[in-house]
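Hi R.,

As promised on Friday, here is the backbone we talked about, encoded as structure tokens. Could you run it through your design pipeline when you get a chance and send me back a sequence?
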């Protein structure tokens, strides 16, 4: 997977390894999530970080650098969580449960970054946009594998669309201080899906 071309600020005096970058990424994610990528300026990000706009360019080449890094890191989290399930000997329905838990946990842990990954990635250009599209396709393909073992073949595509639509929008309503943990939310989704999708395991 291609790495970001952000400048290596870890070598700059006064900064711990990528500490300032992580701070700027979090600030950018919050602003991109709230205002949209195009509605956020470099001055907005610098102001919230407590630095001058010119100082921000000591660490990045462009605002797009921040968007790309946010989206790429989110993609890494989503993909790695599902790839870890591929070799596990769990029954298909249990892999679905674990996959939904992994997805909802990523969204609940970083809702702003999840929203940027899901909705603002289209602001990327050229090779970066093409790379992220490939990563998104990879993630959907992993879901296709998981659901293909659970749902009858003609319905697998629509099951994937249904599952991801429900899980992706968790960031709009989930609250850490709410009555359910991310794992419990994912389990509720899974139980509803397995009860209503006509699964292979339940059709015999």
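Update: got your reply. Pasting your designed sequence below so it's all in one thread:
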């Amino acid at each position: 997977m291609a790495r970001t071309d952000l400048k290596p600020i870890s070598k700059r005096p006064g900064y711990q390894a990528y500490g300032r970058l992580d701070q700027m990424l979090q600030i950018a994610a919050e602003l991109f999530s709230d205002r949209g990528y195009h509605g956020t300026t470099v001055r907005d990000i610098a102001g919230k970080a407590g630095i001058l706009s010119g100082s921000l360019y000591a660490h990045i080449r462009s605002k797009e650098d921040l968007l790309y890094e946010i989206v790429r890191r989110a993609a890494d989290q989503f993909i790695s969580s599902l790839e870890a399930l591929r070799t596990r000997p769990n029954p298909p329905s249990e892999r679905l449960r674990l996959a939904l838990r992994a997805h909802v946990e990523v969204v609940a842990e970083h809702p702003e970054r999840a929203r940027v990954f899901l909705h603002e990635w289209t602001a990327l250009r050229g090779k970066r946009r093409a790379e992220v599209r490939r990563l998104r396709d990879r993630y959907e393909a992993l879901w296709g594998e998981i659901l293909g073992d659970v749902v009858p073949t003609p319905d697998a595509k629509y099951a994937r669309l249904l599952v991801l639509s429900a899980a992706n929008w968790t960031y709009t309503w989930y609250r850490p201080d709410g009555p359910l943990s991310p794992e419990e939310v994912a389990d509720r989704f899974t139980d509803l899906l397995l009860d209503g999708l006509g699964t292979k395991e339940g059709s015999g």
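One thing I noticed while checking it: Residues 64-196 form a domain with the Tetracycline Repressor; domain 2 fold (CATH 1.10.357.10).

Thanks again,
M.
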